[in-house]
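Hey, quick one: can you model this chain's 3D structure?
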Amino acid sequence: MGPKRNSKKVISTSKVKVEHTDDSSNIDTTSIASSDIQSIVDEGLGLEAEEQTEVDQIEEKLKDAIDLTTQKSQQGRVSALKTLCNFLSLKYLPYFVFDRRMTLQDCAERALKKGKCAEQQEGGKLASLLCFQMGPTLDTETLYKDMRSLFLTLINDTSLGIGAREQCCYTLSILCFVASHNLEEIEDIMKALSNVFKQKLSSDSPQLSALHSAALASWSLLYTLLPPKRVYDSAEANVTMLLKLLESGDVDLRITAGEAIALVYEGARDFDDEFTLANDSEDKNTGDLESELCNMLKSLATDSQKFRAKKDRRQQRSSFRDVLRAVEEGDTPDVHIKFGTEVLVLDSWSRKKQYDAICQVLGSGMNLHLAENEFLRDIFDLGPPMLVGGVTTKVSKSERHAMNMANFKSRSIARQKNRDKRVAAF
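Sure thing. Here's the predicted structure for all 426 residues.
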């Protein structure tokens, strides 16, 4: 949260001048005007104080939670980490985070190295939130370099709980997405994630399917960073890899794989508008791959098999109709998300995957961060944060009131031109 304005600077009662006359009504008018201004100033100061008090209270709770992450009770540590994550997802507090970056990083690392599944999950989420609070800075790059090898170890550690490995996949991709600018580094992380979701699935392992889905979603996020030429050159190999995942028994993994295929086609067509697998390969079998893919997508878009849950069938059909149109016709998503007085338009598969990945971390705090977080606004081309007009009610209360006081002053000056000089002048 940026520095607060001093309401006293908006309107100063010391500048009210009164020209004395025998008309007592003028003195009354002056008194009323001065009183109104003073009440507005007092009210503005009250709002400023109220908001500042709320921020101070939040920071005190965060400091207490940081201290509690070192207690002996595992349940207590998990609770403290959840408190940190909840506040950092629901509030944008970059100054607080920058001042305590090393301490918060230590909290996350300690939870990941020494904690059990639930504690590791919260530690991984905390590391992701630190990235979004700080944005693409040198501190974030340091965070990524310090924790990269730890996450690479954890996502492949089969002794860990599945939930912890899922969160580590998400966090590793977020750290790389925010902090890494090296193409080879990005592709190394993508390869590590693909090694997770390419492992053979057994039919009775829904938890493992969730891990594969998390790894694939994380891989897709980093895929949005690849240049079109690199996407074009690897399109056939990636479609072949993803086609196998469409046969999974898990609906979330199938949908994630379908959206990844749409992402591959979109990126390849950014390089060549006429891209299809059949046209861009000398291999005769590639035409069969394109045909096999389209047949599979059509089957999933019209699936009515009764052994699947009704909700799963409906969700799958809706998703794969969009994917099929993306492959055959080059269609893109057209999703409008309203937050405050603004609207975010997701008009590409790349942007949709980025939004989904960030929303997975921020949860219900996504709208607030879209309104205030400069890094997120830069990702989605929203421009600088809106300081006037009330993007979010709680955060911009004092800003709106400052605008009202400025409008009051302007109106007073305008009216004054049509009054006798004996009336108070500002």
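One thing worth noting: Residues 108 and 294 are 44 Å apart (CA to CA).
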